[in-house]
Amino acid sequence: MILMDLHTHTIASGHGYSTLKENIEMAQERGLKVLGLSEHAPGMPGGPNIMFFWNYKCIPRRYGDLRLMCGVEANICDLEGGLDVDDFTLSRMDYVIASMHTPCLKSGSAAENTRAAIGAMNNSYVTILGHPDDSRFPLDYDLLVREAVKAKVVLEVNNSSLHPLAARQGARENIILMLQKCKEYGGPIILGSDAHTCYAIGDFTEAEEVLVELNFPRELIVNESLENLSLIENKNNVLK
User: Fold this and answer.
1) What is the DSSP secondary-structure string of 100-168?
2) What are 142-165's pLDDT values in tens digits?
3) Which residue, of 135, 157, 176, 180, is most buried by count of CB atoms within 10 Å of its CB?
4) How many domains does the chain have?
5) Residue 29 sits in a domain of what CATH number?
6) Residue 238 domain-assigned?
7) pTM score over 0.85
């Protein structure tokens, strides 16, 4: 049973269409136990400024049986894995997703992009690598998964990437390659809706189809147990 969705956005990201309240209500309606707020970092056009993330303290974290976690989707902004969020801000997040986006990073070769991803994963605040599935950023999946396991970073299977109208390219084929390597090396994955509207909250339909097709081990899916939150929580969070 899927209990959490940690990759979601609201109107604060500039290209989302729902409010935090609408997302919370949909998460409750769909029986989630944990909802993650992971707005785009300031490097993404339209994203909120850094003060937005400093002010998470004002948001209640409990809504009945639903827990809200406040994180950030930081942009990998160079081929060494640098992020567009400073350590002070990262240290105040419940969790940190690091992702490659075309407005924020010029793609290199597969070796260069993989080096960038590994560099980001070696950041002590990063706990999830977001949508490593876009052929516009080719990756060496064998090396990526081995290094993710070593860094104790969870790789995301992004449901939005599998949408027929998604801008990301080759996602299904790349996700299959990544999942095969995760099975081989015992690397955990997390399903993320990447919701930009409340109607996508907790919807992993396309991702689940791929998991079933590959007979992927359910014990490697972080969303299946609340105990797995320890795998993605920012252990260096100064506010804990």
Assistant:
1) --TTT-----HHHHHHHHHHHHTSTT--EEE-TT-TTS---HHHHHHHHHHHT-EEEEEGGGGSTT-SS
2) 999 999 999 999 999 999 999 989
3) 157
4) 1
5) 3.20.20.140
6) no
7) yes
